[in-house]
């Protein structure tokens, strides 16, 4: 009974550690933007791809996650960089956060 609890604690610790460290940092221009899915993707060493929605980046998210192995990368970008991708995809940013006219 107590060994099960210990295992769970180790598992939790590993999960927390994973959340705090990125596998890599990738410039947004090195990622692939798919206009159909609105996802930025980047090859993961496991064979799948890291992915993050452009809207999430726009809203301040900077982490792309691989759905297969749960590795994470930090996406390096300026918010202004996103506009050209929205333009390419013929999309609008989700919310006008800036009040500047
Ligand atoms: Zn992976």
Automatic annotation (TrEMBL):
Residues 22-78 form the DPH-type MB domain. Pathway: Protein modification; peptidyl-diphthamide biosynthesis. It comes from the Eukaryota. SUPFAM superfamilies: CSL zinc finger (SSF144217). Keywords: Iron, Metal-binding, Oxidoreductase. InterPro entries: DPH3/4-like, DPH_MB_dom, DPH_MB_sf. GO terms for biological process: protein histidyl modification to diphthamide. One of its GO terms (molecular function) is metal ion binding. It catalyses: [3Fe-4S](1+)-[protein] + Fe(2+)-[Dph3] = [3Fe-4S](0)-[protein] + Fe(3+)-[Dph3]; 2 [3Fe-4S](0)-[protein] + 2 Fe(2+)-[Dph3] + NADH = 2 [4Fe-4S](1+)-[protein] + 2 [Dph3] + NAD(+) + H(+). Belongs to the DPH3 family. This is Diphthamide biosynthesis protein 3. It comes from Saccharomycodes ludwigii.
